[in-house]
Structures are given as structure tokens and as C-alpha cells.
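Worked problem 6 (solution included).
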Amino acid sequence: MVRDFHVADEKGVGYYVGLITSCFALTQLLTGIHWGMLSDRIGRRPVILQGLVGTISSILLFGLSKSFIWALLSRSLCGLLNGNVGVLKSMVSELTMDYLPHQRAQAFSLLPLMYGLGSIIGPMLGGFLSHPVSNYPNMFGNLGALSDFLIDYPYFLPCFISAFICTLGLIFGIFFLEETHIVHNEKSTDNDEEEALLTNNSSDNEQHYSTFKTNSNTGTIRIQHSPTPTVHDKRTPPTLKESLTPSVLSICITFGFFALQAVFMDELFPLYTASSRENGGLGFTPNEIGIALSYAGVVTLIGQIFVLPALTKRFGLLRLFQLVLSILIFLYLSQGIIRVLYFVPDFHGETNTKLWVWIGLLISLTIKTIGHTICFTGCTILVNNACPSVDALGAVNGFSQCCASAMRSIGPAICGTIWSASLSAAFLPYHIRINTTFVFLAMIGTLTFTLSKRLDPKDYETAHAREEVVHIHEEEEEHQEEASGSVIR
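Solution. The predicted structure is:
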């Protein structure tokens, strides 16, 4: 798409692609907290549905892009109008509040699992359905005005299909998505408390005597409340400052630095594998890189469904998180060894073949993919466990998402800059130049691991918000007992 805008030559296309990619993370950074706090006040369901509407609108506008500015603004609009990532984490946290740690891990792993599936299907839609008239003339070439429209907007069809999928999600959400915000549900029952739970089950011809006012439609008795009620006032969600306790800030900062090393590694992988061996790379072709990334996608699914819950049950969430972070440091440092495998003879005694390079790369990719899967899902659960109350989950998850978005917006630029600068630094020895980027990545991993060791296990192993939920239910039971007592009297 950016190439069709004619804003730069072939060498400069990557810069503008990076701007479009980063603008979503930047705008999400501006609104993530606000969407989360709004969900604490009006409930998760309306915010999720509104986010889907915003996504549908922005995707359609993106498909109508005929200039770089239009594409940039439409992607920015998607980030502004969609705060669903943090709100969905809050919903899963509320649904699994009483679950065991490994069961919560299994539930939370569904979020990145769905994201992974979307990441596989999305690029396929974009690649196969763009320029439909020129690619599939027999199907789209003789449709009259529609063909002319698809010629003028060659990227609208994949965007339309994507918006249609989101519309199906919106319709499903309208009819089947239930509110999970416990405090919001408590507020929604306030009107019902005006009627006591005493129903007239007598026959229609039976005289009903009562000194209370009776609802003729429902047969329930209305209670005249005292002007000075003894029940608790309606709860108000805590402010952002009250929600961001020291334990929340600690895990959010750790999450941010892990997001930085993850996006750094994701950006570095295609640079490292595609670069020539003379420039410190592996000299892989685009098809070979695609095969490696497809393998990583399969490993992600296996890690989410099977590995993460089993390891969480064995080691505990925080301990597992710290253990994986320590392993990743050595993994980053060992990346440069893979290119040395070119000199190891294969089974026929020949060198400079890719047999052992492929084996080393797939082993490294397996450890990296499972490690990042565990850490991303683990960070999400630890953030929710540290949340001080159930009516602060939206704000806390929005803040953690902003921390991750901030790092994701600068990570690709840092990676590309260090990779290019290190290879251009002719004053450094060759073996230092080609490994500088991996050393820098290992330093980020070391900092992340150090931050994780400062986390206190008692603040993260169980959900603190669960105590708040229990307290809310106790208040509700006391309220119902008082209401019942007033009816009996």
C-alpha cells in the first residue's frame, strides 16, 4: 500500500510502513487508561461493543486510503477508539477470580491464542485479496461499477472482509456478551431492591391483605425505605492514583520492559535471518523466513494450550516468570552462535550447508516463542493479581497496556538503529559489530529480570481483587437480610 502512495523510493518504504505501524501503538497509549477507567464506571460490555464499532469504522476508512496521510489518520483513529485489549483482560480476570493459578493461566492464554490466529489469517487476507481486479480478473473484472471501485481502492476488499468479521463479533456481543463487572452488576440491582422478595403465589380469586403497597403486575410488595438508610452508599471507582499501588506500578514497569525486549526480538529476527552472512546474518530467503515464522505460530498455539498451564501448576506463576526471563538472557546472547553452524559438517561431511543452521534456529525459535508466550500471559495475570480492587481492574489493565504500547512504539526504531549503526561502525572488530545488537538485547533482558526479582510473591500469587469481591457479596447479603427483616416486621 505504501509503495502505491509513491511517497518514497524502495529503500524508504520501510520508514513509512513503520510510521503507520507505530501510530496505532502511540494513539492507543493516549486512550488506553481512559477506556479502562470508563469500563470501571459503566461496565465492560458497553466499552467492548463501542471498541468494535470504532474498529469497524477505522478499518473501512483504511481501505479507502489513497494517500499516506489518510492511511496514517485511519490507523490512528483505530487506536483512539479501541481500548478493548485492556478491557478484555479485565473481563477474563473477573470471570476467573476464584480459579486456581494454573486454571487462570489457561483462561488468560486464550487471549493471545486468538490474537495469534488473527495474525495468521489477517496477513493472508491482505495478501490474497488486495488488488482483486488485477489478481482475479475472471471474478472481479466484469462487475461494472464495483470493478471500477475496486480498481480505485485496491485494498478495500480485504478491509471490508475484516470489518465484516468484526461486525459478526459485534452482533454476537450484542446478543450474547454478558456484563462481568461485579460492582456494576451490584448497581444494576438497585431498582430491584425496591421490591421485597415476597411473591403472591395465591390463586387469582384469593384476597390479598397487606399494609404495604403492592405492585399489581408482579405481585410483589414495595417497601418504603427510611430517609436515613443504614445500607452502604453506592461504591465509586477509585481514582487512577489510588489504583496504581506500588505493587501495580512494579509489575507494569516490568511488563513494559519485557514488551520492549519482545518487540525488539521480533523486529530483529527478519533483519538477522535475511541479512547476508558477510553482514552478520544467516542469508535466508523470504520463503525460508516465512517457514520459520509459520513454525513459530504453531509453537505459540502449543505453548498457550499445553505448556503454560502445566508449568504454572508446577512452579507457580511468579517463579516461572522469573525463571523464563533468566533463560531468555542467555538465549539472546547465543543468537550469534547460529551462524557459526555453517562451518559444522553435515551428514555427508560438507560444510556451508543449512542443515545445522536450521536445527539451531528452530531450537532457538522454540525456546524464544514459548518463553515470550509464558511471559506475556504471565505478566497479564500478575497485573490483574496485583490490582487492589475489582472496580480498578479497567484502569490498571489500561495503564499496563499503555506501558506496553509505549515500549512497542519505540522498540522497532531502537532495534533498526542499533543494527544499522553497529554494522556501519568500521572502527570496531567484525565479531563485535555483528553481535552488538544481541548484547544490547541481553542487557534489556537482564534489566527486566532484575525488576522481576524485586516483585514480592505475596502481592502477585493470588488475586487481591477477590477479597474485594467477597466483601461486596457480604454487603449484598447484609442488605438483603435487612430488607427481609423490614418486611417481616
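Discussion: The mean pLDDT is 83.
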